[in-house]
Amino acid sequence: MSVDSDGTEEHSWSVDPEDEQGADIVAAFGRQMRARREALGVRVAELASRIRYGEDLIYKVEGGKRIAKPEYLDRVDDALEAGGLIKAMKEDLGRARYPKTVRALAKMEADAVEICGYHTHNIHGLLQTEGHARALFEMRQPTHTLEEIERGVAGRLARRSVFDRKLAPAITVVQEEASLRRRIGGTMVWEAQLERILCVGQLRNVSIQVMPTDREVHAGMAGIIELLKFGDGTAVGRSDGAFNGRPVSDRKQLQILELRYGMIRAQALTPWESRAFIEHLLGET
């Protein structure tokens, strides 16, 4: 990699000024990095030469204005002989680079013992491939900047760590047929997305169902439903067509969403029928 006089856009993310927690993490790292550099008597220009990044980026990272990417942290740790202390900040800085709302959702999903979702137009976020997610962010209007797209994709993919949990949650997803037929991102991206759904659907804790468009009775006409249930018996849910679309945790309101979701699952294809349906879609290409 050649030396870049700035390197800011390519090798870092901007700090969300409305995300106080994330900004505090980034600022604390910047102070730690600067303290280490100054304790060794290393000037900014010398560090820039060692790590092959621009001086401007170093000033912005140390000033808490930019979020350094993992490869930057590796080089700085080695250059400042930090013994892994700087590299250890990867996880914290990684969380800070995701939008605050995404971090909040990922935290709830990480704590949930059961994750339920009925989706109409989009594939459930936990099931999305990188290519599919990127295509979704790229087509948004008003258009997103390249950095906003990268942050959005990274945040969405980070949520998939829920599948790696030792005590994995029970996950049930119902997808509208139309969401599976729409070739978001082109045929190759679409095929990879359907294959991803089939792969995830083989996990013992995951159940994926398809709601056919030919159903004459449909409990999901009010829009998407999302439910997260936790080990202490509490839960949170949301639906576009209930309670003004806001998240709810009241037991009576949750019962309404659970009733609708249960009816949707009963009206959809079974998991086995759904798998055959998706395999048939792939066979049509």
Task: Provide a descriptive summary of the structure in words.
The protein is built from 13 helices and 7 strands. With 285 residues, the chain is α/β, with parallel strands linked by helices. The chain has 2 domains: 8-97, 434 Repressor (Amino-terminal Domain), CATH 1.10.260.40; 101-283, Endonuclease, Chain A (2-Layer Sandwich), CATH 3.30.870. The strands form 2 sheets. Strands 5-4-3-6-7 form a 5-stranded mixed beta sheet. A hairpin with a 4-residue loop joins β6 (225-230) and β7 (235-239). α8 (130-138) runs antiparallel to α9 and α11 (187-200) runs antiparallel to α13 (271-283). The radius of gyration is 22 Å and the shape is elongated. It starts with 7 loop residues before the first helix and ends with a helix. Mean pLDDT is 88; it is low at 1-9.
Q: What keywords describe this structure?
A:
285 residues, alpha/beta, Endonuclease, Chain A, 2 domains, 5-stranded mixed beta sheet, two-stranded antiparallel ribbon, elongated
Give a brief outline of the structure:
The chain is α/β, with parallel strands linked by helices. It has two domains: 8-97, lambda repressor-like DNA-binding domains (434 Repressor (Amino-terminal Domain), Orthogonal Bundle), CATH 1.10.260.40; 101-283, Endonuclease, Chain A (2-Layer Sandwich). It has helices spanning 8-11, 20-39, 44-51, 55-62, 70-79, 90-97, 100-111, 130-138, 146-158, 177-181, 187-200, 251-267, 271-283; strands spanning 12-14, 66-68, 112-119, 170-176, 206-211, 225-230, 235-239.
